[in-house]
């Protein structure tokens, strides 16, 4: 009886100790990429019990930054580690690993001339390396991808091009464009990897951009392919990308593709993304926990 009481006490003590702990962020990690011919930096969040529970493997969320930021942004400005710690302690999400790569200004896709193959690097080098180095469950149903702005666009493109790799996709203020917005931009405001050299007329631009246009792909890809991923996107009502997000919602509704869409009061800024990253964590966690 005494031994049982001691065992119960130690078990309860361990549970309380873990509940009081915070996760760990490791920055300045580097992958040497042969595909890109250079190093790719990344940060990683490990949940509170990562170093204690040696036998456990965790689901993973790949979290992409926005234009002009880097792999440190989600921790430095978005406090995603604190959001994850609090949600885990409150029992709102399952413990998960969060991986944050540096996408530079590549929009997380392969460039039109195929000279910069960022998506190939991510799927062929980055993911396999990270998932072997850390205790990650290497299955689609335990793998999610999300991001803000450029990163939200990248997350959706990654799933559209690789629907068998990810179970869940979420975007915050994702950079989705209507045809009118594509024509207005024409690559003038960003160093985008989408645009061939030389001026094109309107029809040529729209025809070329189809393979990079999330809304067009969602309208035309087979429903069975789109239904392989669970979709979530969230945008402020005063955000300059709200029109593209609304158009995507309409397109998915017309095709009866299941998805979750949120419009809230807010702008295209860190105040908005920091306030709603916990909703993304809860969305992907629900998927992980259903397995």
Highlighted features:
single chain; 291 residues; alpha/beta; Rossmann fold; eight-stranded mixed sheet; 41% helix
Task: Report on this structure.
By secondary structure, the chain is of the alpha/beta class. It has one domain: Rossmann fold (3-Layer(aba) Sandwich). 41% of the residues lie in helices and 18% in strands. The chain has eleven helices and eight strands. It has helices at residues 2-20, 73-76, 80-89, 118-133, 150-161, 179-185, 202-209, 214-220, 223-226, 242-254, 270-289, and strands at 24-33, 38-46, 60-64, 97-101, 143-148, 168-172, 230-236, 259-264. An eight-stranded mixed β-sheet has the order 1-2-4-3-5-6-7-8, with helices on both faces. Helix 3 (80-89) crosses helix 11 (270-289) and helix 8 (214-220) runs parallel beside helix 10 (242-254). The longest helix has 20 residues, at 270-289. The radius of gyration is 20 Å and the shape is globular. The two termini are 38 Å apart. The model has no long low-confidence stretch (mean pLDDT 90).
């Amino acid at each position: 009886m005494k031994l049982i009481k001691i065992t119960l006490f130690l078990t309860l003590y361990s549970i309380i100790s873990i509940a009081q702990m915070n996760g760990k962020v490791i920055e300045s990690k580097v992958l040497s990429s042969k595909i890109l011919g250079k190093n790719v930096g990344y940060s990683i969040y490990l949940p509170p019990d990562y170093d204690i529970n040696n036998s456990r493997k965790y689901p993973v969320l790949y979290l992409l930054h926005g234009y002009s930021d880097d792999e440190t942004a989600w921790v430095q400005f978005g406090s995603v580690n604190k959001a994850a710690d609090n949600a885990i302690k409150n029992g709102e999400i399952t413990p998960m690993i969060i991986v944050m790569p540096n996408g530079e200004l590549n929009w997380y896709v392969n460039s039109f001339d195929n000279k910069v193959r960022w998506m190939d690097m991510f799927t062929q080098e980055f993911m396999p390396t990270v998932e072997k180095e850390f205790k990650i469950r290497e299955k689609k149903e335990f793998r999610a991808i999300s991001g803000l702005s450029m990163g939200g666009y990248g997350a959706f493109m990654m799933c559209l091009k690789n629907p068998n790799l990810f179970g869940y996709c979420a975007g915050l203020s994702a950079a989705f464009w209507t045809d009118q917005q594509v024509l207005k931009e024409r690559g003038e405001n960003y160093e985008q990897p989408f645009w061939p050299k030389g001026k094109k007329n309107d029809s040529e631009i729209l025809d070329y951009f189809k393979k990079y246009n999330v809304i067009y792909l969602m309208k035309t890809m087979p429903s069975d392919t789109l239904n392989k991923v669970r979709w979530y996107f969230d945008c402020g009502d005063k955000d300059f990308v709200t029109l593209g997000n609304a158009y995507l919602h309409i397109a998915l509704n017309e095709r009866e593709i299941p998805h979750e869409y949120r419009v809230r009061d807010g702008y295209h800024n860190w105040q908005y993304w920091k306030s709603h990253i916990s909703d993304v964590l809860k969305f992907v966690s629900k998927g992980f926990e259903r397995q």
